[in-house]
Amino acid sequence: MRRADRARERRNRTIAIVVSAAVVAGLVGFGSYLFITDQNEKKEEAARVAAEQKRQDKARKDAAGKSVEGEKSWDAKKLGRTHVTKPVDYPMTPPVGGDHDQVWMNCNGDVYEKAVPDRHAVHSLEHGAVWVTYNAQAKPADLKALRAKVSATPYSLMSPVNEQKGALMLSAWGKQLTVDSAKDPRVDLFFAKYVQGKQTPEPGAACTGGMAQ
Fold it and tell me: Which pLDDT tens digit goes with each residue over 165-188?
């Protein structure tokens, strides 16, 4: 009986060791898989961002000597830039500049489903962002396309502005364009010229760390 007990104990210990080793090996293997997958995803994301940046740089270079037909312009130097803490009565809808809140709307490709305060969005324009806005007449397909474009473009944001006259409008500091479709070639041209464009009062200023819904 004692020999049988000892044999059973040895067998149990062996089984426990084998099972433990298998569990540890499985955890190590799974951890390695997660690490490799994470690294691959980071590399893919870095490559995507680099490719998009290269594309935007080329588009900006190509757009340098072109004008955006039908855009409205205001003297950027005459638009107020004072920080305020109360609502501002802007002369255009949506606004393209003027006094604004000291906190900007996050504009690192941010898409907002609800209206954002004008005075925060104007601060984003001061930093070189393009603001895409729409009203209830905008078509779902156009909104889908513009959301995708904004999401892939640093220094841009998108939100509804029900009071605006055009279904789809693009605004930058001192610049504004109304279009009927996201497929209008002027959309890409507007982005290329005015995302961190020459009209930007504070180029390179942050588009993160501000206000978000």
Answer: 999 999 999 999 999 999 999 999
Q: pTM above the 0.90 mark? A: no
Strand stretches in 30-174, DSSP E = 72-73, 83-84, 100-101, 108-111, 130-134, 156-160, 168-172
- Rounded distance, CA 176 to CA 178, Å? 7
Q: Judge contact between 195 and 153, C-beta under 8 A.
A: yes
What does the pLDDT average to over 142-162?
97
Q: At what angle do helices 185-194 and 140-151 cross, to 10 degrees?
A: 30
CATH number listed for the domain at residues 73-194: 3.40.30
Give the neighbor-by-neighbor strand order of the sheet with 72-73.
72-73, 175-179, 168-172, 130-134, 156-160, 108-111
Task: Sketch the domain layout of the chain as residue ranges.
Answer: 1-63, 73-194
Among candidate residues 176, 106, 183, the one with its CA nearest the CA of residue 139: 183
- Centre a 10 Å sphere on the Cβ of residue 62 and count the other Cβ atoms it contains: 13
What average pLDDT does range 137-164 have in this prediction?
Answer: 97
CA angle 184, 188, 193 (to 5 degrees): 130
Paired strand residues for 141: none
pLDDT value, residue 152:
96
Dihedrals phi, psi of 172, to nearest 5 degrees: -135, 175
* Alpha-carbon 20 to chain mean position: 46
